[in-house]
Amino acid sequence: xxxxxxxxxxxxxxxxxxxxxxxxxxxxxxxxxxxxxxxxxxxxxxxxxxxxxxxxxxxxxxxxxxxxxxxxxxxxxxxxxxxxxxxxxxxxxxxxxxxxxxxxxxxxxxxxxxxxxxxxxxxxxxxxxxxxxxxxxxxxxxxxxxxxxxxxxxxxxxxxxxxxxxxxxxxxxxxxxxxxxxxxxxxxxxxxxxxxxxxxxxxxxxxxxxxxxxxxxxxxxxxxxxxxxxxxxxxxxxxxxxxxxxxxxxxxxxxxxxxxxxxxxxxxxxxxxxxxxxxxxxxxxxxxxxxxxxxxxxxxxxxxxxxxxxxxxxxxxxxxxxxxxxxxxxxxxxxxxxxxxxxxxxxxxxxxxxxxxxxxxxxxxxxxxxxxxxxxxxxxxxxxxxxxxxxxxxxxxxxxxxxxxxxxxxx
Amino acid sequence: xxxxxxxxxxxxxxxxxxxxxxxxxxxxxxxxxxxxxxxxxxxxxxxxxxxxxxxxxxxxxxxxxxxxxxxxxxxxxxxxxxxxxxxxxxxxxxxxxxxxxxxxxxxxxxxxxxxxxxxxxxxxxxxxxxxxxxxxxxxxxxxxxxxxxxxxxxxxxxxxxxxxxxxxxxxxxxxxxxxxxxxxxxxxxxxxxxxxxxxxxxxxxxxxxxxxxxxxxxxxxxxxxxxxxxxxxxxxxxxxxxxxxxxxxxxxxxxxxxxxxxxxxxxxxxxxxxxxxxxxxxxxxxxxxxxxxxxxxxxxxxxxxxxxxxxxxxxxxxxxxxxxxxxxxxxxxxxxxxxxxxxxxxxxxxxxxxxxxxxxxxxxxxxxxxxxxxxxxxxxxxxxxxxxxxxxxxxxxxxxxxxxxxxxxxxxxxxxxxxxxxxxxxxxxxxxxxxxxxxxxxxxx
Lengths: 411, 445
Known about the structure:
The structure holds two protein chains of two kinds. Chain A has a nine-stranded mixed beta sheet with strand order 3-2-4-5-1-6-9-8-7, sandwiched between helices. Chain A has helices spanning 32-44, 63-66, 76-79, 97-110, 130-138, 153-169, 171-189, 205-211, 243-249, 280-293, 310-319, 328-333, 350-353, 361-373; strands at 5-12, 55-59, 88-91, 116-124, 233-241, 256-266, 300-304, 390-397, 402-410. The longest helix of chain A has 19 residues, at 171-189. In chain A, a hairpin with a 4-residue loop joins β8 and β9 (402-410). By secondary structure, chain A is of the alpha/beta class. Chain A has two domains: 5-129 and 231-257, 3-Layer(aba) Sandwich (Peroxisomal Thiolase, Chain A, domain 1); 147-230 and 265-410, Peroxisomal Thiolase, Chain A, domain 1, CATH 3.40.47. By secondary structure, chain B is of the alpha/beta class. Chain B has two domains: 3-216, 3-Layer(aba) Sandwich (Rossmann fold); 225-432.
């Protein structure tokens, strides 16, 4: 990196949706405006003031269809009037839109076109029933494949991946790893008051998971609903700053993380994944980000992984080289990714436990890593080992199409 | 004529009524599903929705659209397969909309009974008036060259009387849905000695396609469901009047309603159920059944009095409960009618005296909602009713007396030759009335 880049002052709204006690699908709920304003203000309240901010990037996937609202850059000034007449734009790359907002900000600071940029991700998805939400989310795939896809298009895509994984490595073996993945997600989410599964009180989530075998008659062939991330409303925001920018924000370095490497790669959306049991783009993007940071995966103490589906979590463990092909399920079921394991993953619940407001997820991941490295994770706090002080986030759009990988360390 | 062909031309009489609209909905969906089968692509399916009221028929179009949409949303995985050859339908939303369109294209709302002259199958859901039913069915049969089959939804009129009256010669049976037809899983099937086997077979196939639970009943007025309910209601009214000798009638009604709901673990107390069905409907069904019951007086002066005062219960078009014996606020009981003073008395006023008479609630109680979900329901029910029998309170004693009477009604339906088996009686009450246990049991012995 030709300049030092920092992140600080992150904030999340609650991830709202089924699972939260206060969620009632029949009652009117706050919209996009509320989430943008709430996350933005919460981030802004931790810094010197709005004048320190040069630019705003809004990550969002499909407000155009979920909320009949495009042009989200125009909402920056609803966070603070001083944001009016500052550069502000919305960036989109399906579920990696949040990650794209982050690296747009990073690139601008690197390019010295800004010293401080806010990256804000937002999605409000509970506006439509899940069966219609599936149509909207399907546009993260190639539209020409929609017709022959499943009614629940993305669960269908990852169900196909899971089916091949079962075939190659064994159904019970794979489900054991996926069930543990679910349990970890719930146990971690219970420690973060903003998590969608924070109120989950099921005594034994892993047993609950195994009670519901996949049934293609009602859902997809190889996944049950507990294998899937949730339908969420939420927003997250964080600042990206240069050294001078950090000073301007009034942020002490101990309260910031340094971004030491990143990568953004995109696979051809019109092709099927080259190998259904491999997250090819994730693997390449992570390797490139680690290489840019000059470290290996063995120096990473915690990671935020894009587990839109439990099978994606397992496959990502393999793509990161933490487990050999086919060994991801064992790596997880042996407890290595649990919060007390060797490689704690998704320490506030990830997409399955914390929630998946699609366009916000990438930013939420950065906020969690920032919280963990700076000791601000509250009940969810883990201890990062001294010899592995790095954090990693993997944010994915579509079926392994657009991937943003970022490497962080204490500033 | 096979199953699909039989369902190509159908009419529903009384299609805009409470039962008729449900039957119309289920039949429209079944016909639409058939129309999507590859072999039926070139067939036109027609469902005539016949009713007297233009206004209600307009309402039915809205009702069908909303309900069919919900049904389509739940089966979109299957619908995507059925519309796989339609390149223009890509999103779930497009496929769902098309399905609703296809269903609405089949349904023809009309006030013209002549449209039934081409039907192969006629569902009859007009009001519980034997002579009217006979007149309409005869008229259609006289003008219809297809020798149509008639499914009557009567809940009380003996089928053989309709068959003889309209001269249908084995082409009619009782196909008695429970209210609301779209939700309730139960159908009572009543044949006459003349009913042709293929008519009965079709009825079974149709019920199966609709995922209904079929309970056969002998052709005795009231069949199983109303055979139990009417007598159970009369017993409740009788107990309330008995209690009213020493206390105000509203308090007595409140007390009996509470015992029948809480102590007997039912979804509603007996007076709430009368309100739900409608005081008018209950009175009417008793009137229809009465002439066929020997040595039994199926009649309640209290119901007559309520009707005279215009307090009828029943439901509003949106499904909300109208006030009857009880007054409701968002479904909760807030007051009880006083037929002498013609006014409602607040539950707050009644509750204390009622509780004092009932005595302390027996320990170990669970609400009906939890009981029906229990894995060890049998064990819980045995314990609960044993506790009631052991309790010295008035509430427990009334509950046990009520339970015994309900059991006796159930056994009488068997003895009178209405039901084929104990299991059938219990299935009707479990499925059609959502009871947590069948009336014929050993809990109250």
